[in-house]
Amino acid sequence: MGNTIDGGDSNFTISSWTGDATINLGDGNDNLTLGGLNNTVTIGLGADNIVAGSGDDSVTVVGLVSWLNGPAPETIAVHFSGHGNSFYNGFYSTSDGSAEDYPLPVVSTITGGSGDGNFTLWGGGSVVTDGLNNNIFVGDGNYNIVAGSGDDSVNMDSPFGGMTVNVTLAGSGNSVSGGGGGPLVANISGGTGDTTVNMGDGLETVQANIRLGGSHNTITAQGMSGSVDPGGDGAIVNLTAGGNLDVMVHGAGDFIGLGDAINANINDQSNGLQIDVSGAASATIYNFGFDRGAVLTIDLQFGYPQPFQNATQIVDALQQTSGGALLSYGPDGGGSFLFAGVSVSQLHASNFAV
After folding, report:
1. Could you tell me which residue, 45 or 50, shows the higher pLDDT?
2. Can you tell me whether residue 177 is helix, strand or coil?
């Protein structure tokens, strides 16, 4: 118990079974098999395979671009067991030698663990873990993530390179966020409710396909295209500055907030849908539940003058088109809503608010 092994730049095969081991290795192609708890591994660049131990184990990748001895790209595979494990290849552990001092891309394959894990990856790979309360951060690269069993968080950061990330959730209380200066494609699915998703930061358009399970999920997106299915009852969707976006709601008491510069297609399969419009938004609404308690509220923010003072004025502003009832508002018709397949005569003041 409590072994300490220091090695340089070479290829090592190490077994340590009793736990509390501290292993520091340089660059090379290494194979480590560890047992017990509380093992700490600091490893250089190369093609590495690690069985980390039984829990509370940590693996950190270190290295500078000028020291590369391994294959291109660098790779590492780590299998964890138990709770409280961590993996880190991020800022200040590796460096690509740039002025920004970004981490080196290391393709990382992380498996195992029973919860309370913290995993930071840069350069692509995968994380497949289990249990609750896992925190996963991924930067620049393509990833497949199976986040755990609930109360897990996934953060995606694309500062300059493109990313494609697939995230599969289980359990409830999960959170997913993504953005950055580079293009991001995200596919997010699963969960059993109370999931929170925040996508985009206004720097680049995010393409996301989000399909959540359960109820009471919240999705907030800025500058996003793609598709959204927020799950069952009590879903909340807030959208700003995006286009080519398809939204389907099918619960009871769902809410969609449409901010400035948004263009969306909304498929209303819900009961009691509330749509709040705060900017120059445009949307085509299919199956608008005028007879299922749906309400569209026009309450402009962002310095826009209010185009309507009451619901009756909104009804009076409706125009019949071949595609359905059309509502236009704002300066130069900056916002518009087409109620596809619905005639003006089917809409009433009870379907609108200010």
Report:
1. 50
2. strand
